[in-house]
Design a protein that fits this description.
Homotetramer. Belongs to the avidin/streptavidin family. It is found in: Secreted. With about 130 residues, this protein is mostly beta strands. The chain has one domain (about 30-130): Lipocalin (Beta Barrel), CATH 2.40.128. Helices cover about 15% and strands about 40% of the residues. The chain contains one helix and seven strands, in the order αβββββββ. It has a seven-stranded antiparallel sheet with strand order 1-2-3-4-5-6-7, with no helix packed on it. A hairpin with a 7-residue loop joins β2 and β3 (about 50-55). It is elongated.
């Protein structure tokens, strides 16, 4: 009987695993990151485009932080349960823009998680300062 136990465990894991991968990750809704920034993404249109807003908890400017508009798109979810996406935030309180790109995942516990990379571009006064703008 001892030899059958590992086989039953492997078999039960194999039967449970497809339910995790079959669950779709939905980008629409409210998201909060580990630094306390939050964003709300509205419904996707038929082409996968969306609009929303972003309220950052961190900034390098001394200006008052305000909610900023975002717009982006994701791959349509016809056959993709964990889609890729990208969006741009035009900061309403500074002369900078940030682009984000990432993927929406469903983790082992069934929680939806966004994994992203971002790039911020600040305005500079001249081309010689370009090196410090990104």
């Amino acid at each position: 009987m001892v030899q059958a136990t590992p086989f039953l465990l492997v078999l039960s894991l194999a039967l449970v695993a497809p339910s995790f991968s079959a669950r779709k990750c939905v980008l629409t809704g409210k998201w909060i990151n580990d630094l306390g920034s939050n964003m709300t993404i509205g419904a996707l249109n038929g082409k996968g485009d969306f609009f929303g807003n972003y309220h950052t908890a961190v900034t390098s400017t001394t200006n008052e932080i305000r909610v900023s508009a975002l717009q982006g798109s994701q791959h349509l979810m016809k056959q993709k349960s964990q889609p890729t996406f990208g969006f741009t935030v035009h900061w309403s309180f500074s002369d900078s823009v940030t682009v984000f790109t990432g993927q929406c995942f469903v983790d082992e516990s069934g929680k939806e998680v966004l994994k992203t990379m971002w790039l911020l571009r600040s305005r500079v006064d001249n081309i010689h300062d370009d090196w410090k703008a990104t």
